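Hi V.,

Quick status before I head out on leave. The structure for the redesign project is tokenized and pasted below; the design run finished overnight.
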């Protein structure tokens, strides 16, 4: 019976390890996707998900901006938004006030 408990612990620890490993790889891929994004233009459509992460449409392309950004629902339709490939910084210029916000992970 003692061996059986050891096997259960080993299986449980293995599952935890592989789940953690899988999540780390998935997160790294998502971070690289955001790092490789590049856009510059006027926000045509903005949609926030339940977690507050926006999907913005710029120049007829959709970009999902997640993983560490806190835009605080500041992005609105008509605002200008800019992100350079190879950087995590997103620059937002408000349509009505001209105020500029910089967001970084």
């Amino acid at each position: 019976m003692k061996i059986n408990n050891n096997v259960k612990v080993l299986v449980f620890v293995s599952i935890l390890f592989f789940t953690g490993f899988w999540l780390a790889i998935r997160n790294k891929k998502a971070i690289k996707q955001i790092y490789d994004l590049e856009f510059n233009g006027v926000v045509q459509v903005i949609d926030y998900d339940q977690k507050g992460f926006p999907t913005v449409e710029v120049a007829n392309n959709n970009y999902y901006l997640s993983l560490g950004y806190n835009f605080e629902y500041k992005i609105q339709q008509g605002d200008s938004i800019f992100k350079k490939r190879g950087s995590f910084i997103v620059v937002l210029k408000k349509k009505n006030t001209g105020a500029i916000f910089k967001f970084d992970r």
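Above is the designed sequence. The two ends are 50 Å apart (CA to CA).

G. will cover questions while I'm gone.

Best,
W.
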